[in-house]
Amino acid sequence: MGPGAQVQAGTLNLTGPLTIEATAAAKDSFLAEMVRLMEAAEGGRARHRRIADRVSALYAPVVHLTAFVTFLGWMAATGDWHRAITIAIAVLIITCPCALGLAVPIVQVVAARRLFESGVMVKDGSAMERLAGIDTALFDKTGTLTLGLPRLINAPCIDPTMLAMAVEMAAHSRHPFSKAIRNAAFAGQAKLASVSEHPGFGIEAIAEGTTWRLGRRGWAEWKARTGGEGKQGYGATVLTKDGVIVATFDFEDELRADAKAAIEQLNGAGVSVEMLSGDTEAACGEVAEALGVERFVPALLPSGKVEQIEALTRTGHKVLMVGDGLNDTPALGAAHVSIAPATAADIGRNAADFVFLRKSLLAVPLALDISRKAGRLIRQNITIAIVYNGIAVPVAILGHVTPLIAAVAMSASSLLVIGNALRLQGFVSNASVQDARHDRRSDIGALAQS
Questions:
Q1: Nearest 5°: phi and psi at 184?
Q2: How many beta carbons lie within 10 A of that of residue 288, not counting itself?
Q3: Which of 389, 383, 322, 317 is nearest to 51 (CA)?
């Protein structure tokens, strides 16, 4: 990208300062168009809401026709227009579609509030409906299963000159590994003629006619591995000089709180858990073993994660993607439903259906528990509304209900639907219990330190 290039709204700049001229209004921007497309797609997936809206739309003409036919029937049977019109009014009142209209949205509102109180933000009610149906959960490693704050652990084993060059190059990137390298040593005095970042791969720099690359091994090492024997043969991040490895960087990252417990709860809920990562097989294997993840796919590019999701989708699976990085954004969009931590890149949070605010991954099984409970309550509410009308309407048509009794019955049906939805407020899952315990442990630790 150079002078005069078009910059789309929502683009994340990683390479340096830019001077940008606005050429379109915000409502006409690419980002606004993407948001509109996402809203349209999400709205189309809300099956329960769509069914309720469709039935409610048919309700008015059917109810009015039923009341009119009731009036004509009682006029023909008794000739008493006062009684006929009273019974017709009772039919109109008792068949008010309030219960059916409230059946879905009241549960979604209560569930969204319940999740928000637990530190999970919901972007759309249809997301809960989609989450309730998932059978496979895919987790990114760095920044999701881990905190995304890696530290360089083999700095003493790296040639100081090479480390200084790596620090100089890492200063031009916001990648977590680049930040870890910058924190490990001071920059050297190398004069870099040009520096460019290749998202998903690494950083390339030219210094005194020499090409340096810092990043993914398969991309940085484009010549014979004359420097890649022994211990240097391990690690996903390397520094190369004219295509030959001159330094290898090993990182360590802290696991998210309760990550293992969250995965166990997902397995207990019948969800298969897998890990996707761009890191090496050895690094992924360590995390997978620590967390009890049986299947993982290492060394993936962003497109590779999307391919994994599409492969699962083609075989009939409904996939949940949990990721945080810029490179996870395509996967978040490709999944049936997606969750991102609040520490994720802006574009990642925008692409996700849920955002959790706490460090603990227990937010994921908690969101699943509440979504499934909300789905059951929605089905119960729809059943209540149908059964109510199935009993109340014939009774009203037969003339056994006055307008006053009809009004009371109609209000009672709406209150019954609302009361059933409010049961979700008292729902406590294993995830929320453990998350509360973790919060209390954190508070006790903070008090002890103070």
A1: -85, -25
A2: 22
A3: 383
Q: What is the per-residue pLDDT across 360-406, written as a single tens digit (0 to 9) for each? A: 899 999 999 999 999 999 889 989 988 998 899 999 999 999 999 99
Q: Compute the chain's Rg from CA coordinates.
A: 30
58-90: per-residue pLDDT in tens? 777 888 899 999 999 999 999 899 999 999 999
Catalytic residue chosen out of the listed positions 124, 140, 328, 353: 140
pTM of the model: 0.71
Contacts of 77 (CB under 8 A, 6+ apart): none
Residue that the structure tokens 């009610």 belong to: 125
Name the band, by pLDDT with cuts 50, 70 and 90, for residue 44: very low
Q: Which percentage of the chain shows pLDDT scores above 90?
A: 39
| Number of CB atoms found within 10 A of residue 437's CB | 12
3-state SS of the chain is CCCCCCCCCCCCCCCCCCCCCCCCCHHHCHHHHHHHHHHHHHHHHCHHHHHHHHHHHHHHHHHHHHHHHHHHHHHHHHCCHHHHHHHHHHHHHHCCCHHHHHHCHHHHHHHHHHHHHCCEEECCHHHHHHHHCCCEEEEEHHHHHECCCCEECCHHHCCHHHHHHHHHHHCCCCCHHHHHHHCCCCCCCCCCCEEEEECCCEEEEEECCEEEEEEEHHHHCCCCCCCCCHHHHCCCEEEEECCEEEEEECEECCECCCHHHHHHHHHHCCCEEEEECCCCHHHHHHHHHHHCCCEEECCCCHHHHHHHHHHHHHCCCCEEEECCCHHHHHHHHHCCEEEEECCCCHHHHHHCCEEECCCCCCHHHHHHHHHHHHHHHHHHHHHHHHHHHHHHHHHHHCCCCCHHHHHHHHHHHHHHHHHHHHHHHHCCCHHHHHHHHHHHHHHHHHHHHC
Which amino acid does the sequence have at 184? A
Identify whether the C-beta of residue 277 lies closer than 8 Å to the C-beta of residue 301.
Answer: no
Query: In degrees rounded to 5, what are phi and psi of residue 257?
Result: -60, 135
* Cα dihedral 61→62→68→74 (10° resolution): -170
Is 140 assigned a catalytic role? yes
Spatial contact of 143 and 259, defined as CB atoms under 8 Å apart:
no
Read off φ and ψ for residue 93, nearest 5 degrees: -70, -45
Residue 124 near residue 371 (C-beta atoms within 8 A): no
Contacts (Cβ under 8 Å, ≥6 apart) of 419: none
